[in-house]
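RETRY 2/3 - previous attempt timed out on the joint model. Re-submitting the same 586-residue input unchanged.
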Amino acid sequence: MSLLNDLSRIFGIAFEQAGLDPAFGAVVVSQRPDLGQFQCNGALPAAKIAGRPPREIAQDIVDRVQRDGRFGAVSLAGPGFINISLTDDFLAGELQLVADDPRLGVPEIPASRVLVDYGGPNVAKEMHVGHLRATIIGDSLKRIARFLGHDTLGDAHFGDWGTQMGMLIIEIARRDPELPFFDPDYVGAYPTLSLTLDDLEAMYPLVSARCAEDAEEAERARIATFELQQGRPGYRALWQQLHDISMAAHRRDFASLGVEFDLWNGESTVHDRIEPMIERLDRAGVVEESEGARVIGIDEPDDKGDMPPFLVAKSDGGFLYSTTDLATIEERVDDLRRQLLLYVVDARQSFHFEQVFRAARRGGIAPVDIGLEHIKFGTMNGPDGKPFQTRKGGVLKLRDLISMVTEAAQIRLSEADIAQDYPDDERAEIARKVGLAALKFGDLSNHRTSNYLFDLDRFASFEGKTGPYLQYSAVRIKSIMRNAEEAGLSRGSLVPAGFETERNLMLVLARLPEVIERAFELRAPNHIAEYAYDLATQFNRFYEECHILREEDPARQASWLTLVDLTLKELILLLDLLGIEVPDRM
RNA sequence: GCCCUCGUAGCUCAGGGGAUAGAGCAACUGCCUCCUAAGCAGUAGGUCGCAGGUUCGAAUCCUGCCGGGGGCACCA
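RETRY 2/3 succeeded.
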C-alpha cells in the first residue's frame, strides 16, 4: 500500500494502455521539487523501443493519467519527463491509511529464514573499536530483516577454536606447570582459575610474540591446539574456563551497547561435525591432498586472478578457521534451516569468504538456492588515516569508547538548563541513550563499505546530523503529545495540508516503505539513517512554522496531532532499526 | 605481480542511468515574552581523481591510467 507503488501502478496502467511495458510507469520522488512532487521518466527509454519521439509518448501518458482526479498536476517537461503533484486531499487520504496501519504502511514480505553473523569477538581479547562496526551494522540488519517479516537469527560467532587457544594453553602452562590441566594422567575435578579477561589479554601478545620468533614455541602451541581439538581432557577443561571468562566480558559489552543475540555459538560449536563433513566431502571426491594438507579446488574457468585451493585440514590433521567456517555453513543450512546467511565481517576478509562460499557450493554444503553473502565493511580510521588507535598507540576498548561518549552526553546535559531538575538516575539514563545514539548513528550514517574517520569531537558534539538530533526531534514530539493530553486535546483525521512544511512532512512520511525495503535489499543501514534525518529535519521545519498547541482550528489541530504522532512512530521505528533508543525527555 | 575496494565543497561524508550534484561541521548573517535553541532561516563554498567508451542522458555502467587502503593456503 505504499504511495510510490500506487503511483507506479497507475502510470504502469497508462503505459500498458498505450501499448507499452507497464514497467516504464515507475514513479520516483522528484529530483526537482520546484517542478513536482514525483516524476516518471519512463517515456524516455520507452521511446527507443516504440520508435516514437519521447515527448509524444509522455504526452500520451499525461493525457491518460490526467483523467484521474487524484493528481493536482501532471505535466510534460524537457525531453520527456513527467512531473507529478498530488492534490492535498489525496495525499492526506493516503497518509491516513498509513496512520491507521500498525505497520505504518510497510508490507510484510514472504518470510525467508535468515541468519546474521556479526560481532565476532575472540577468546582472550576484549572487544575494541574494531568490533563496533561489525556489531552495530549486523544488529541493524538483523532488526531490519526481522521487521520486514523474515525469520531471523543473530549469532555472535565466537572466535574460540583456533591457534590462539593453543598459545594461551602453553602460556598458562609456562606460568604454572603444576596445574592439573597439564597432567595427562590426572583424574578428578579441575580447579577454577581466578583469571580475568585482563589477565588473558596481557598474556596473549607475549606468547604470540614468542611464537613468532621462536619456532619451538610455535610448535608447542600448534601441538597444544591440535590436542585441544582432539579432546585432551585437561585442555578442554582449561579451554572451557578461558571461554567462559571471555564470554562473560563480551556479554557485558554487548549488553552495554544494547545488542542482543539469539545464538552465542562459535567456532567450537561445530567441532564434532568437522570429521564427518570431511569424510563426506572425501567420498564425494571433492577433497584432494596437496603438500600434505587436504584441500578443495575452487578455481573457476573465468577467474581473473589466481584462486588457490581451499584448505580444510592442515598437514598435521588439525583444523583452522576455514574448516570451522565451512562446517558452520553446513550447520546453519542443515540444522538451523537457514536460507540466507549474512556475514557482517571486515572487508579485509573478503577473499576468505569468496573461498569458503565457493567451497560450500562445490562441496554441496550450500546449494545454489542458499544465499551466502559477505556483508563487508571498511575500517574505522584515526586522524592519520590508519586504523584508529589511542594516543598511546594501543587499541581503544569498546568499553572505554562507550564511557567517553556517555560522559560527553552527561556534560552536555549539565549545560542544558532544562535538565537540571531531573533525578540523577534519569540523567544517567539519558546520557547513556544519547551517547550510544551519537556513536551508532555516527557509524551507521556512513555507507558500510567505506573506510571512515573516527573523530571523537564530532561524536561528542551532538549537533547537526547526529543521533541526538534525531532523539531530540522525537522528544519534542513526545513533549507535545504530553502537553496535548494535559490540555484534553486528542488526535483526529488528517485534513489536507495548508502549509508548505506540513505538506512536505506528509510527503516524507509517505516514503517509509521503500526506504526500509531498499535498506535491506542493499544491506545498507545508512539508507535508514539518511531517511530518519530527512524526516526529523522536515518535522523541525514544520514545528517552526506551525504551532500545534496554539492552533485555533480544532480540526486542523487534531489533524496535526495525528501527523506528529505518526512522525513520532516512524522516527521511533527507524531509530529502533538502527538500534537507537529514544528517551522521554532530554 | 595479481585480485578487491575507495577517490565528490576547506574538513567529514551522502547520493537509486535522468533535469540545476546534496547534507553536516568549520566561516559569516539573522531568529528564544511563543509546543525543548541538542532547534530554525539565510550567505558563501564543486572541472564528482584523469582519459576514453556505452547511452537520447553518466558522479552512477565498462576499459585504461594515477593516487589512498586492503588481501593473495597450513594465523584469524
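Chain A has a mean pLDDT of 94. Closing ticket.
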